[in-house]
Amino acid sequence: MIDCHLLRHGSTGFDGFRGRLDDALSPTGWQQMQHAALSYPWAALISSPRQRCLAFADQLSQQHNLPLRIDDNLCELDFGDWEGRTAADIASTDEQQLQNFWQDPWLYSPPGGESLNVFAQRIQHAWIQAQQEPTPLLIITHAGVIRYLHHWLTGSERSSLLHYPVPHGSLHNVTNWPVIEFPPA
Fold it and tell me: Is residue 83 annotated as part of the catalytic site, yes or no?
């Protein structure tokens, strides 16, 4: 197991499903990330290419002379037709489809969006690649990526995927999770 932390980007000031949208961090979002990440002695960084992750990763890399690798596989789930919309807005036009997604995102993808199975494959690939990086490692990414990694690495029930709390600017110590080794022996 690698010494790794996952950092969710800070607030952008926008609500709703933001998966593939490329929002910048708000001033509050910058503060959230600085508070969470600046005190730890990282050896390397990996970041999602979305500016809400990458801008902070780039700044941290330059400030501390840390290697930074950008990984497209660390992008948030593509929410398709729901991009930029709030849950309340979606519920007003397609409540059943939204309820299906909340109840079983493995079976019900957002319309025009990415399936959770495709999402899971790319996150697993990113994680396997990350294990080649120097440690301690900081991965700067999105809530869905962190939720999926928590689910996958701890072997939690599929139904618990959306219940793992990942607030903006939150730091998650993967080393403290009861980690299952992947790929299995």
Answer: no
